[in-house]
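Q: My labmate handed me this sequence with no annotations at all. I'd like to see what the chain might look like in three dimensions before we decide whether it's worth expressing. Could you predict it?
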Amino acid sequence: MHLNVFFSGMGVSPTVYDLDLDPSTAGMDIQTALLNRLGVGSSLPVVFVGGKLVGPIDSVMASHINGTLVPLLKESGALWL
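A: Here is what I predict for the chain of 81 residues:
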């Protein structure tokens, strides 16, 4: 499942930064910084909501299942329900 489809289905319009499509070296620098922050064995893409790191898709799904994702989306103004 693509994360943007998941969020769109919830009524959220995500802003997506595709680092692979960045023609400068900034995309690679950001990717390296994210992987360093996340630690060994982490993967991209990752999700930030309101500037807070939620994590890769498994963390997003876990947050959705345990009920913490929707309040975070509401708190950040991304979801108005």
